[in-house]
Write a structure and sequence with these properties.
- By secondary structure, the chain is of the alpha+beta class.
- Helix content is about 40%, strand content about 15%.
- The protein contains four helices and six strands, in the order αββββββααα.
- The strands form two sheets. The protein has a three-stranded antiparallel β-sheet, with helices on one face. The chain has a three-stranded antiparallel β-sheet with strand order 4-5-6, with no helix packed on it.
- Strand 4 and strand 5 form a beta hairpin.
- Helix 3 packs across helix 4.
- The longest helix has 26 residues.
- The radius of gyration is 20 Å and the shape is globular.
- It starts with a helix and ends in a 7-residue tail after the last helix.
């Protein structure tokens, strides 16, 4: 989750209402809906649209001959934009993971296509190019942030402000060679 939050900030998507894995995506309606239902499985939906300013409808992928429609009322007027942003976020993450597997690990990955929302670019919100993103630098940066946060917490707990600098120096001196794929 920490990686996803940091990755979303790199894409200027500040909402924290999606859990994305590339082929699975869950959108949280928690802050956009007054009802009790919380998560929507975007990978199980075939379409969505706003029926008025405060309502949105999702249609599921057909199961045999049956397809379901979920309607959410009393929603924020921004829910459609947030779902579109979440779909873009999931798509970029999927493309980045595929590129990482192919370039770093040498795996041949087939890009599956389906009929769910995560495979339909017409639902994606327009976004800036993302070609310069890669998983390895993002993970290294996230690892550094985590270690810096640990050093600051330790220094605050022990009430030794200089410990932050010592922690940084010791970490740099004892860091192992790059083994992160």
């Amino acid at each position: 989750m920490e990686f996803q939050r940091d990755f979303a900030s790199k894409l200027n998507l500040t909402s924290r209402n999606i859990i994305a894995t590339g082929r699975l995506a869950y959108f949280s309606l928690r802050s956009y809906n007054s009802g009790s239902i919380d998560w929507v499985s975007l990978h199980q939906m075939i379409g969505f649209r706003a029926i008025n300013i405060s309502s949105v409808v999702f249609k599921t992928v057909p199961y045999g001959e049956i397809s379901y429609i979920f309607a959410y009322y009393d929603c924020s007027r921004y829910v459609v934009d947030q779902v579109s942003n979440s779909l873009v976020y999931n798509h970029i993450l999927c493309e980045m993971l595929i590129a990482h597997f192919e370039q770093s690990l040498g795996w041949q990955v087939q890009r599956p296509t389906g009929e769910s929302l995560i495979d339909q670019p017409e639902y994606f919100h327009p976004h800036d190019p993302y070609n310069d993103l890669a998983i390895k630098p993002l993970l290294l940066e996230l690892q550094d942030k985590r270690q810096q946060r640990y050093g600051r917490c330790l220094a605050d707990y022990l009430e030794l402000p200089l410990l932050t600098e010592f922690h940084r120096a010791v970490r740099k001196a004892t860091q192992r060679r790059d083994t992160l794929f």
